Fold each of these.
Amino acid sequence: MALVLSVLEQGFIYTILALGVYITYKILDFPDLTVDSSFPLGAAVCAVMIKAGINPYITLPVSFAAGGIAGLATGLIHVKFKVRDLLSGIITMTILYSINLHITGSQANMPIFSDDNIFTLSPFADKLGKYNKVAVIFIIMLICKILMDLYLKTKSGYLLRAVGDNDTVVTVLAKDKGIVKIIGLVIANALVALAGCVMCQDQRFFEISMGTGTIVIGLASVIIGTNVFGKLSFIKTTTSVIIGSVIYKACVAIAIWMGLAAIDMKLITGALFLVILVLSNFRKAGVDND
Amino acid sequence: MKKFLSILLASAMAMTMLTGCGGKIGEADGETDVNVADNVKIGIAQFAPHGSLDNCVEGFKQGLAEAGYVEGENLEIDFQNAQADMANTNQIAQSMVAANVDLICAVATPMAQAAYNAAQGNIPVIYTAVTDPVAAELANEDGSGVGNATGTSDKLAVDAQLEMIRKFQPDAKNIGILYTTSEANSVSAIEEYKSLAGNYGFEIVESGISQSSDIPMAAADLASKVDCISNLTDNTVVSSLPVLLDAAKNAGIPVYGSEIEQVKNGCVATEGLDYIALGKQTGAMAARVLQGESAQSIPYETISEYSLYINSEALAALNMECPEELKANAVEAAEAE
Amino acid sequence: MIKLAHIDKTYNPNTVNETKLFTDFNLEVKDNEFVSIIGSNGSGKTTLLNMICGSIPIDNGEILINGESINKLSEFRRYKRIGRVYQNPAMGTCANMTILENMSLADNKGKIFDLKWGTNKKRIKFYKEQLAQLNLGLEDKLGVKVGLLSGGQRQAMALLMSTMTPIDILILDEHTAALDPKTAEIIMALTDKIVREKNLTTIMVTHNLMYALEYGSRLIMMHEGNAIMDIEGDEKRSVVVDDILDIFNRISIERGN
């Protein structure tokens, strides 16, 4: 049970991140590497604010905004300076590494063990006991998902989807597709930084290297989610991203649990992904044959 | 096709069920352990594959064995390595808590913090290779433990190291240090070097990198600016130690290490750590906790004695010699243990 | 009124592939004129449209709409007054969005794309009426993703979408070329109907000589960056397909193929 809780906790935190990656990778078709640094950016902002005695709930919107600025930077570099998408993300990611260390006052590791956080201050901390954390994370994740579902139904959201789908349409609508891309990157990185903020409070310390490989987790979650469940019309894409993220974390948990030799953990994790994706491809092929 | 599909599905389901069971078996074990006190299950969680950290784990097992806990006899060990991936540290820590082990041994700072956070005080956490437990909020200012956690620090003997370097190179002015800006341990070591260097008439020239690919250029640049290099226990730099050694060799300057492994690998000398010994000391602490002592009541420990290790071959290559006054206590690293 | 004055356009300048397409090219299209442009491949028809829309830059000269130069306006800004339908039916619609969502997008052209609901429920009836005039049954498939429609259906939608909001100029870039003959007929008839209803100034590039003669008030034949034929009114009505084919053949003989 504790293991299941752990998978859900981690899975839901990374869902917030995966929702952001979903915007850039799936909607905008933009491989955004900013993520590897905007995730720790959210955590750095969070740790510093909590250390300064600010209410942990305030860290959530502030981290969200900080991530948005990171996305804005990548967007401007790409659209205004006409730098290739991949490289724009790399540039921001590289710069952010230093900025993150500046935020924490050059502390690469910043513990917040002795401070209150969104979990200790949660209104149902006493009532739910060990389920408190997963409940708080679930609520934050759910709010993000619902807001994103709603946003994608607004005029601005339509335009965002149109840019990824067929940017000629956006141009013919007399809209600057560059600005729409920037908006997408802002929202995506804001979500990623929010995930970093929640992660920081969950693990109760900031660590500069916590972003390394984040984009891989985000991409894997999105692809697993949309590949396995995306074709089911009754499931919203954002919902499939949640499931994908939880599956990803479950795979890692299985690998840890099976871990005969520590070095094989990634091997097993990778093999599990492969099984899931192959499985879903067979299922799709089966549907087509019918 | 459908048959194949169902087989795959069934195996996937079986896998899921097994995981569920895994948790349950772990919990059941935990309950029976209360009655069979001399049969314990512990988790060892290591942050990254790394020579010094491997030695720590090795020493930890030896320390436990000396206290009567022998792996395979009355001790079951679940060993995990996070492969330096922060996302894994939390999951490993949480999976060990879920398996309800009797004790978690966490190696290196991020792993120790993740284990401490996951254990929530319910399972004792014994950490090792944490340079500054107070800064990591794993110990109080006075050294006493917090929340059922204690362990050992691999704090460097900076003062002794500086004194040693002065004896090896009486005329040297600058000491270069290469470190990774993302490694908290290195950052705090640099601070200590800077604050103590003046006492021995040295100036510290630091060079911060962010990833191992930066090392070749940074090392060459640093070696050209200083009289010697003192190497920390920085994970990234240590992994690329040969690159640093080559750069120093080209510049004709020595590199001092921070622990015995580094001297074995080509550093000239160290007044430093032996991670096996550190691990043993940690293992002894873990044994005390397994026997019923509260981890919180045991203050964290640093290595009790530093010793001087030298590499005569590396010294000779630079036409250097171990100073007479140090010779008596110096141990040839290659011959140690 | 669109005016192109003294336009120069060279592709791949200063390379072995340098192609001088337009030299001092001039064209004036009056309000409410429906111009059909024909010509062989490489005659400059599509380049002409792209220059007007700003998809490709001009080297020299000036492009004016209603007397104002639009040289400095970027592509997307020019589309405030221009609607465009492409040859490829996939270009004019968003495949992963539903028919209703596509219609809503087009309906909002010229307005702000803010955080209001993307689809205004009150407009659904209007969209259905618009779609119903296509006689393709799309009005009953509002929730279907456009990517699932046929090329003809998508092109019909693209045409509706590009003319839904007030525009000055409609650009049709071989918009029937990728369709089967029957669908092409339907789309062409629909085009004519919309252009008449809305009094649009229209420039249509086409490969279909029949359409060029049957529709529109003016006919231009392009060849090597020049308008070698430019007729309207009674003169245009008196021309038959064979006349045009004659000219085509003469050009081909001149070019030696």
Amino acid sequence: MDSRNESTAAQKQHTTLWSKADTAKQVWAVHGYKNTLYCIHDGTPIKGNNASQLEKEIGSEQLPANEHYFGLINFGNTCYCNSVLQALYFCRPFRERVLQFKQHQKNNKKETLLTCLADLFYSIATQKKKVGTMAPKKFITRLRKEYELFDNFMQQDAHEFLNYLLNRVSELLQADKQGNKPKNGSNEGQSKSEPTWVEDLFQGTFTNETRCLNCETVSSKDEDFLDLSVDVEQNTSITHCLRGFSSTETLCAEQKYYCEVCCSKQEAQKRMRVKKLPQILALHLKRFKYMEQMNRFTKLSYRVVFPLELRLFNTSDDACNPDRMYDLVAVVIHIGSSLNRGHYISIVKSDGFWLLFDDDIVDKIDSSAIEDFYGLPSDLQKNSETGYILFYQSRE
Amino acid sequence: MAAQSEGGGKDDIKTQFVTREGTYKLMQLSEYTKPTRVPYNGQSNTPVRASFIDVMDETASPERICFNVGRELYFYVYKGLKKAADLTKPVDKRLYKGTFPTCHDFNSIWVSPESVRLLVGFTAGQIQLIDPITKEPGKLFNEERLIDKSKVTCIKWLPGSTNQFIVSHVSGQMYVYNEELPCGPTPPHYQLFKQGDGYSVHTCKTKSTRNPLYRWVVGQGAINEFAFSPCSKYLAVVGQDGYLRVFNYDTMELVGSMRSYFGGILCVCWSPDSKFLVVGGEDDLVTVWSFLEKRVICRGQGHRSWVSVVAFDPYTSVIDDESLSSDKNFNNSENKDIMQDHMANGSESLRNSSDSSKSLPHSSQNITTYRFGSVGQDTLFCLWDLTEDVIRQPVGRTRTSILITSANTNAVQTIPRSNNIAQKANSVSGGEHLPDSNAHVLTNSIGNATGKFATLSLGERKEVQKEKEHKRNFSLASRNSDKNSILKSNHVKQVDESIKLLGTCSCPRLEDVPLLEPLVCKKISCERLTELKFKEECIITACQEGIVNTWARPGKAQGLSQHTVISPSASNGGMYCISCSFRSLVLTALSCGNRPFSDLLRKHKISKATSFGVVLHDDVTDKRRNSIET
């Protein structure tokens, strides 16, 4: 008796996940024709049911004491934003820093993207209810005001948004430190004196080593990154993609390298290896490839597996913490067939279980369901649900 | 690295490859697959596995093959290198609804041309025992999913048993069943039977004996695969928590463990002499662990994605003749016997009895080079040679020769552990019902050998630490204390302490052990590879799409007779290969001779309605289907 109930519940859970994804696809299929690409949000009572169902699934007493699972309402193609916000919210160190910022914020009158983000995180974290929905209206409005690229109802690239958000927040913090308020979209505070907490969390360094094939001199240059963008190949792992990122490249012909020792252009070998491993490693899979013939981006739905635990192989010899162990904490997933056509959702790990955030809908998923987001092993299909940005958090 | 780029091109699927023993060729006509090839949609995620059994009939093709594709299970006559059997005429074919087959295993003792016993595990947790030859109604276990609801990941008959088997699940549990016992109408209640570091064993708390006989809870997260040592005594279990754990199956003691570099371990295989284990997993690596020394001896890098199957090739190992003959005073006849066992059984489930005097992982054979293979989700097939210089490398050998001195320090730190564990294992086995005098001598001698080495390097130790190992020195100390505490507290360590394992012999740093490159690394399929088996005259691979391929060993493609010996070609020693058919024939005759088949069959004829949605369609006989559905 007991077992039957449980098994049907498990089945239902799985079907919800899929039917939801299917709906998303259907929405795009319908609206794709007219190029009016809206993530349809029907404010039906579903979300209420959903919230209570989630509570039931997890079991109210099993819900972690200080955790809140709030779906984010879509304001017309803002799923790129919602998915990234959820992923960042469940990168615990990031959330904690944002909430700290909120605490220490003294009557700051000026509204910035950071204050909006802090208000949003704060209001989720201080909800009485454990599950529900939230409208990130203020944040979206602010975002659209700040950056004209996002000031429309078009589908945007989640990675571009993540990049913008992290850089912007860092800028604002830097400006805060220096005591002068940033002007709208200003580039002040470029003289980076001290790293902000955004850099503390996300920034790593890679060493760009170039070896002149004529004089054998190796010159290396360090560069900082907030996330790593890696090329993807069919039926590979993220580990392999990272290795590809660091594979040796020969600069020749047109791309010859100007060697300071030889004082001339020479053939050279170049490779990039990670020197400082960040606390949160954000990996962006380059799944959108520009096709010149078609004059648009096409999606590479390749199956790229990503483990729950990760160490890097492509570290430089002088790396200070080369064998840092990472745990997967969040994944932003792209659903659909191309960059401008599709939907973003995210899966996050919280207190030992996995949750799926699809705008305002929150579902508990089994960790074995993650394999549904690796991609497609056959090249025939383009429409897929694939991991797009992976967030790995360092264990120590 | 050259090997890596070779497998590169997308459409460049290889149909042959060359090693030092010659050219291996794909036998295009020997392909087994679904009779009706439907366009592959990539939807099915259950790995395609193949099981083989020699039914020992008088024909030229005594072997049978069973493989699963999606929701179907096929059973054919396997013709080896010859043209495959007519695919439209399977001996048996089954179609399941609601639950898919994930793994299967033939009983290698209870077999005749008229009857075989095949265990099948399913995605929803159920287990079925069928006979694809007689097609008698099978038996179902965990049918109502009262015992475990999660997917079956691995199923195997207990070595030497005709009625007991082990099943592992995604839930992280393994169960021992006796097929003659019922599963009971209620969920089982368990009581603790044995407990150790990271595992516990439970028995059923009921008046009457029922299934499961035992429940093993091992590690955290799914158990991905398990394997009995060729000597039958040890059980290796690998799981999603990244651990390989080796148990003495009878005493239920944990005798050793290792940790992946990162991520889950997906597959495991024992060397033919039970001395080494190779595992593959989510770190894209193959890792070789020495059972005697309880340490990782090398890793192999070549795959571009997760490694799904690893297997030793028992027919392509190089054996040192001299050491074999010098072993004479060491109970030679028995050793040879064991060697034959191991060679014959290979990576498949073994068939020798669990006679404890035979079941020692000792060094009677002196294999100097081990060959093993691996296949992965990257569609690549790799072959690796585990050579003597790697095996004999001291702990902590680095690839750069400059660091040899520091390697010695590492050797020092790890020796106490292997010694202690070896002694511990001895005391354990001595205390329980297995008088392992041989093992005692052997493990001690190994300990001494390495011990000698340790004292030699002691003098250098301090300087080296000062010079080069500043950072490591600190962690070295902590590691040592860590190890001591581990030993004292009976191996109590937490899984989330796995970071602390880094730098120990359970999980050395990348630079601490040799990193092998594959001997052969070829893309041989357009789909993920899911099966790898080494046979006397061929290698078998299978992919997710449902194609089982046979690769002829060098010189075999011309269609030679079956039981020939591979001609020796290696520089010293040569390759050995022993035909197993006769031996297993005798064994089977012995084990089944005094018990008529018909009796056994009648005993198992318990037909039951299949409530978990298994509708056993059978194209071959409708009669059977009817009987099962009633």
